[in-house]
Every structure is written in structure tokens, then in C-alpha cells.
């Protein structure tokens, strides 16, 4: 199907030359300004007139003037061209200094751990950058959904993404409230988990995630059971704090509760690990200064 162009292809070519000739009222002076030959600028103007379909200049051996159509074209073309130059400058500015809207997708658990501690200092250091955080467990399509980058646990990042490590490898801790453990007992070996109430996670794919544990050098995936299914780690942690059952969560989000005695870790020698938390982006285009500045800042 033939494209339905709002403006005929190539119709904007030669507009700068037209504006310069209109300003100078001279093909030669306009050519000098643009660093091209008078014959080249004349050819450019003829091509523009052919595409527009009307003569824009009156030419004599001594003078160059605008036709009525040329005056009308100038009236509309000059502000439009200035807007295009301003748009180019604005876009170029994004490539030269940290500025603009920085959109990040991250799981809810990552926000208090990694983002909140650096947001104040980052926004102070880069006042021209506006940070927007979409906290969700969904695995978003960065390009389709308009995000500059995402933050995820390493095992959930597509292989074609460019990744930047933000944390070392993390343990998955199995925790429960002291009240729950006093009622149900403390599991001693991984197989004991089958007799406990375990808070489970439903992945964005719809599948229930198994619990991963280490047992004598073997990596095991256990199908556990329990009265509650959630879709993010903060909700899972909250359930453990309220005594619903055991929860398997990244250690950093549970550590302060363990230290305070609100939670107790069990099967600590069987804890599995995750590669850590990574920032990821498409890598198929230039990394804009706003994203590069954020990466450098959060890694510091």
C-alpha cells in the first residue's frame, strides 16, 4: 500500500536555503552563508519550487524578491523551521548532559533497598532529570512500554539485554515469625518444609514458583504448600511477619526483621542464592547521559 504522507517526501528539503535567500535577497550571499556554490543553492531552490508547485522568488539580474506565494511560504516556514531547530537542540541536549525524564521499572522489593536510599542525592546532583519509578513484578518490554531501564534479579532478565550489576549475589532466606515457629516447630531439613505452611509466589507467567534450597551440595526445587499465594516479596514478607507461615525471600529485605527478633531464619545452611540485582537496558542505542549518570550514581 502506498504511504499516505502528510507532507510529500522531500518537501522540506531546501527550506533552510529558501530562508537564507529570503533573508539576504541574494543567492550569492546566501550561498556564502551556507558554504555552498551559488549554482548549488539555485538548484536547491528550483527543486523546492518544483515540489511546492509554485515559484517562490522573482529573479532579475540585479534583484531577488519574493513572489506572493513566496511571502506566504516564508510566513509559515520561518517559525516552523525555528521550531525544528529548537527541537533538534532539545534532543541534542539529552545526548550532551543528564536531563529529561528517566523511566525505570523495578520490583516493589527493590525500591526501598536500592532506589529510595539514592533518590534524594541523585535528584540533588542532577536537577534536570525527572525520575519516574514503576514498581511492579511484571516483566515489562522496555521499548514498547517506554522505559529507559529496568531493575531485576539476574535470573529474570532476558539474554539479549545489556546488564549492569548493582549488588553481589544474594541469599534467599527462609524466615518465619517466632509465634509461627512456636506453634508449628522448626524445620530441620528441607523435606520438613512439606509439613509447613509456606507462602508461595506466583510468577508473571502464571506459574507457582518452587522453593530452591541447597542440600549437601545438591540444588533442589521443592513444591511447597500453604494457605497464601502472592506476587511480590514485600507481601510475602508481610505474611511471614503476621504469622501466616514460612517465607523464602531475598535476605536483604528480611535482615532488619531478623536482627530485631520479629523473624527467625531457619534452614540457614540450605539457603540458595540468586545472581544478584541488575539494572538492564536494551543496549541497541546510545546510553543517554541521564541513564549513565543514574547507573554511576547508584553503583557508588
Structure characteristics:
single chain, 300 residues, alpha+beta, Arc Repressor Mutant, subunit A, D-Maltodextrin-Binding Protein, domain 2, 3 domains
Write the layout of secondary structure elements.
Elements: H1 15-24, H2 27-34, H3 38-52, E1 57-59, E2 64-66, H4 68-96, E3 100-106, H5 110-125, E4 129-135, H6 142-145, E5 149-153, E6 162-165, E7 170-176, H7 178-184, E8 200-201, E9 211-215, E10 218-222, E11 229-230, H8 233-241, E12 247-250, H9 251-260, E13 264-266, E14 273-274, E15 277-281, H10 289-299
Parallel strand pairs: 3-4, 3-5, 8-11
Antiparallel strand pairs: 1-2, 5-15, 6-15, 7-12, 7-13, 7-14, 9-10
Helix pairs in contact: 1-2, 1-4, 2-3
Detailed description of the structure:
By secondary structure, this protein is α+β, with helices and mostly antiparallel strands. It folds into three domains: 15-96, Orthogonal Bundle (Arc Repressor Mutant, subunit A), CATH 1.10.10; 100-168 and 276-299, Periplasmic binding protein-like II (D-Maltodextrin-Binding Protein, domain 2); 170-274, Periplasmic binding protein-like II (D-Maltodextrin-Binding Protein, domain 2, 3-Layer(aba) Sandwich), CATH 3.40.190.10. It contains ten helices and 15 strands. The protein has helices at residues 15-24, 27-34, 38-52, 68-96, 110-125, 142-145, 178-184, 233-241, 251-260, 289-299, and strands at residues 57-59, 64-66, 100-106, 129-135, 149-153, 162-165, 170-176, 200-201, 211-215, 218-222, 229-230, 247-250, 264-266, 273-274, 277-281. Strands 4-3-5-15-6 form a five-stranded mixed β-sheet, with helices on one face. Strand 3, helix 5 (110-125) and strand 4 (129-135) form a beta-alpha-beta unit. Helix 2 packs across helix 3. The two termini are 53 Å apart. Mean pLDDT is 87; it is low at 5-11.
Amino acid at each position: 500500500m502506498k504511504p499516505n504522507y502528510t507532507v510529500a517526501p522531500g518537501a522540506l528539503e531546501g527550506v533552510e536555503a529558501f530562508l537564507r535567500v529570503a533573508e539576504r535577497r541574494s543567492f550569492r550571499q546566501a550561498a556564502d552563508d551556507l558554504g555552498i556554490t551559488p549554482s548549488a543553492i539555485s538548484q536547491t531552490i528550483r527543486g523546492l519550487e518544483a515540489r511546492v508547485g509554485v515559484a517562490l522568488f522573482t529573479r532579475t539580474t540585479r534583484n531577488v524578491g519574493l513572489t506572493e506565494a513566496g511571502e506566504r511560504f516564508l510566513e509559515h516556514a520561518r517559525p516552523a523551521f525555528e521550531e525544528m531547530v529548537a527541537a533538534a537542540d532539545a534532543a541534542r541536549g539529552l545526548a550532551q548532559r543528564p536531563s529529561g525524564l528517566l523511566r525505570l521499572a523495578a520490583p516493589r522489593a527493590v525500591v526501598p533497598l536500592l532506589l529510595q536510599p539514592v533518590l534524594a542525592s541523585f535528584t540533588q546532583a542532577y536537577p534536570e532529570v525527572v525520575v519516574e519509578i514503576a514498581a511492579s513484578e511484571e516483566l515489562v518490554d522496555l521499548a514498547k512500554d517506554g522505559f529507559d531501564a529496568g531493575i531485576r534479579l539476574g535470573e529474570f532478565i532476558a539474554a539479549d539485554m545489556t546488564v549492569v550489576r548493582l549488588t553481589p549475589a544474594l541469599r534467599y532466606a527462609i524466615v518465619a515469625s517466632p509465634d509461627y515457629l512456636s506453634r508449628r516447630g522448626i524445620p530441620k531439613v528441607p523435606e520438613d518444609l512439606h509439613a509447613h505452611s509456606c507462602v508461595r509466589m506466583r510468577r508473571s507467567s502464571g506459574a507457582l514458583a518452587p522453593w530452591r534450597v541447597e542440600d549437601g551440595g545438591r540444588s533442589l526445587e521443592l513444591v511447597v504448600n500453604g494457605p497464601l499465594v502472592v506476587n511480590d516479596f514485600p507481601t510475602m514478607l508481610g505474611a511471614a511477619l503476621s504469622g501466616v507461615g514460612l517465607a523464602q525471600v531475598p535476605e536483604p529485605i528480611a535482615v532488619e526483621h531478623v536482627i530485631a527478633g520479629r523473624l527467625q531464619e531457619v534452614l540457614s545452611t540450605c539457603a540458595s542464592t540468586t545472581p544478584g540485582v541488575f539494572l538492564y537496558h536494551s543496549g541497541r542505542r546510545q546510553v543517554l547521559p541521564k541513564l549513565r549518570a543514574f547507573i554511576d550514581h547508584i553503583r557508588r
